[in-house]
Amino acid sequence: MKSARLVIACIALVAACTADEPGRMLNTSQTELGRPEYVDELFRDVRVSDPTDLYSREGQIHMQTLPAVGREDRHADVEGRWIVAGRCEPADEHDGDVLRTIADHAADTRIVIVNEAHDRPHHREFTRRLATRLAPLGYTHLAVEAFDPGTFTNDAIPYARTDFGTYVNEPVFGGLVRTAKELGLVLVAYDSGISEAEAALEPVEHVRLREERQASRLAEVIAGLPGSGRILIHVGYSHAAEVPIGGYGGNQIEWMAARLKRRTGYDPLTIDQTDCLSDSDRIQFAAASPRHAVGQHDLLVAHPALKFVDGRPEWRTEGPNSRVEIPTGLISESRRTIVEARYLDEPIDAVPVDRVMLWPGESIPLLLPVGSYWIVGFHEGSDKQLSTTAIVGEHPP
Fold it and tell me: Between β-strands 86-87 and 111-116, what pairing exists: parallel, antiparallel or unpaired?
């Protein structure tokens, strides 16, 4: 759906783009987009004020959704965050290029499993970069736990759809899927929900059932790979544990990676991104700490602490992204606003290239690579929404 088809009433507005990359905003218009259901869900899930109990379901959803609306800065300011990476000693095994070292190890197996924290988009960016290193080694498939098997389709469109999964409807996750498609990787959904009967079981029991189903499904996919085919698997948290570890009241749980290893006979390369914080300003390997079980992961990747410029994390400005100021005409003065940017030729159900939620009075830039975009602002508690088109980077005079 191109923005030219959406205009029903124009308002005059000209906005400047970034100082470090030429760009321009074009006409801003009220639109007939049809408000996606997830927009109001995002407003609902991100509380106006941080919940007092971050361990509650409401608190966990709030913390996981803040980064999905581009507010890692607000996420970082919340005290008492419930899962925080700790300090680990640096590991000896690295030559300064973490991705190259991982690729060297990946050449010796058919399975690489890398995890994420669900509130850390930079973990998804790391997996995206890793995929570009692994594809030339014969890695042909990308399996993603976050894909919803009920709505995911492995089709020829170049983008991820917003209904591919709750976590997938986040710009950096969308970028991971976009790159995987560009690389020609076959995308695999392998997770499954919990039945009503299973929901009545003790948590540890339906976790075990879920892990077994995940491992079974992935084992089927791996058995069907061509002789030289290999698979990269992107999971959350403990699903990458290669040995049983404690959890849920101290019970030992055999997570998906351990079950997959046993089922297939292949020793996967397991990579953790969630537990260790880099002691420098760069990504590095970390040594296992006493809180890790022996053999829990093959490699621990430690990311540096986040730093912010204009409310956006510095890591997002590395590479091709430019800061694009949001026209004030898109933003409500009295309500929160969600602003999303998509390529001009992509529809409303494409995961946006960038998204930010603004509280009244805030000014935070979008981060966009060179391209032509349509940008829309959704106002909380109102059907009013405005859009504009923008060209970032090289453009005709």
Answer: unpaired
Q: Which residue has tokens 């927009």? A: 39
Task: Tell me the pTM.
Answer: 0.91
- Structure tokens of 307? 């730093």
Q: Tens of pLDDT along 57-97? A: 999 999 999 999 999 999 999 987 767 788 899 997 666 79
Beta bridge partners of 313: 308
| 313 touches 306 (CB < 8 A) | yes
d(CA 301, CA 126): 10
> 116 near 124, Cβ under 8 Å?
yes
* Distance between CA atoms of residues 148 and 193, nearest Å: 9
**What is the residue type of 387?**
S
Instruction: With CA atoms as reference, report the closest residue to 301 among 211, 218, 240, 256.
Output: 240
User: What is the 3-state composition of the chain as percent helix, strand, coil, each rounded to the nearest 5?
Assistant: 30, 25, 45
Joined tokens for residue 117: 């924290």
Parallel, antiparallel, or unpaired: how do β-strands 385-392 and 269-272 relate? unpaired
What one-character DSSP code corresponds to residue 97? -
Q: What are phi and psi of 139, to 5 degrees?
A: -80, 115
Tell me whether residue 373 is exposed, middle or buried, using C-beta atoms within 10 angstroms of its C-beta: 0 to 12, 13 to 18, 19 or more: buried
Cβ(386)–Cβ(31) under 8 Å? yes
